[in-house]
Design goal:
Distance between the termini: 16 Å
Protein name: BadF-type ATPase
Number of strands: 10
Strand order of the largest sheet: 3-2-1-4-5
Organism: Pseudooceanicola antarcticus
CATH topology of the domain at 2-102 and 280-294: Nucleotidyltransferase, domain 5
Number of helices: 11
Helix content: 40-55%
Shape: globular
Order of helices and strands: EEEHEHEHEEEHHHHHHEHEH
Low-confidence stretches: none
Radius of gyration: 20 Å
CATH superfamily of the domain at 2-102 and 280-294: ATPase, nucleotide binding domain
InterPro entries: ATPase_BadF (IPR002731), ATPase_NBD (IPR043129), Euk-type_GlcNAc_Kinase (IPR052519)
Structural class: alpha/beta
CATH architecture of the domain at 2-102 and 280-294: 2-Layer Sandwich
Length: about 300
């Protein structure tokens, strides 16, 4: 059996296939990150993979992972954790950034620029020399514009500034109601517990509350989502400017928050080929695992 796993900040998806490529099982578990800097991030990473291990019907021959935060270089700690949890020697699994996995899932070898917008945001493409180009994606403290976390933090900043200035969420009452209900309160303590006491995946989920407010007619929420669309389009335009004309594909959960995000992207990039493919990165990873294991003379 061959395991593919797409580990994202908000959720992780996995697929198990047999040697013929037929799906045996699939599932979804908690999000995690390859940014293993402390005990909490380590526990989340281990928890996501342990949940998959516990669901497997038997031993895995080879596994392929796309991991948010893993970047494009080796990470001994990631390798140590995967080996320990799944009982696989290093030559029986491989991994990459979740962005690299998504790019291959979206384009299958053809040329193209990819923007991924989920908990974070990043663009990736290849130039005429075949060199990988990455734009954005520097994390929630630096950039990740247009992402779920970016939408959530922009909304919180707007709400608390309005409360500071006016004594209440004047003219953004709908947004305040949706966001504070999701956050568990509107006090400093509630905000600190939610934002600083959690992780970026939990922060990103507040974007769902912003989208709810937009659907209920909150104009500030609607503008935040349109602005997110413009920021994501900017990543696409940056790659077009640097690497030339090619289809620009947009993937990720943010695109499903509200139709206005896709509409804004399409408007900003009018005249260019824009795609919104539905990719199954976990299945693609499982097929990569199968192919690597069955390829003749493959040294993995």
């Amino acid at each position: 059996m061959y395991l593919g796993m797409d580990i994202g900040g908000t959720a992780s998806r996995w697929v198990l296939v047999d040697r013929d490529g037929e799906v045996i099982d699939r599932g979804i578990t908690d999000g995690a990150s390859g940014l293993i800097y402390d005990a909490r991030s380590l526990a989340r990473f281990r928890g996501a993979i342990e949940a998959v291990r516990d669901a497997l019907p038997g031993a895995v021959s080879f596994a392929e992972f796309g991991i948010t935060g893993a970047g494009f270089s080796r990470h001994p700690q990631i390798e140590e954790q995967v080996s320990d949890i799944l009982g696989l020697p290093r030559e029986r699994f491989s991994y990459s950034s979740d962005m690299g996995l998504a790019w291959h899932s979206a384009f299958h070898g053809r040329r193209g620029h990819l923007v991924s917008a989920g908990t974070g945001s990043v663009g990736m493409t290849y130039d005429e020399r075949g060199e990988r180009i990455v734009v954005g994606g520097r994390g929630i403290l630096v950039d990740d514009a247009g992402s779920g976390v970016w939408i959530a933090l922009r909304a919180l900043r707007l709400l608390f500034r309005r409360i500071d200035e006016d004594g209440g969420p004047k003219e953004v009452e709908i947004l305040a109601s949706c966001v504070f209900a999701a956050m568990g309160g509107n006090t400093h303590d509630a905000m600190r517990d939610y934002v600083y006491g959690g992780d970026r995946g939990r922060i990103g989920r507040l974007a769902v509350a912003v989208a709810e407010a937009a659907r209920e007619g909150d104009e500030a929420a609607q503008e935040l989502l349109r602005e997110a669309g413009r920021e994501l389009a900017h990543l696409g335009r940056t790659m077009l400017n640097r690497c030339g004309e090619a289809p620009v594909a947009f993937v990720g959960g943010v695109l499903g928050l509200d139709p206005s995000i896709r509409a804004e992207i399409t408007s900003v990039l009018a005249g260019h080929e824009v795609e919104f493919p539905r990719i199954d990165a976990a299945l693609h990873a499982a097929m990569i695992a199968k192919d690597k294991d069955l390829a003749p003379h493959d040294t993995h």
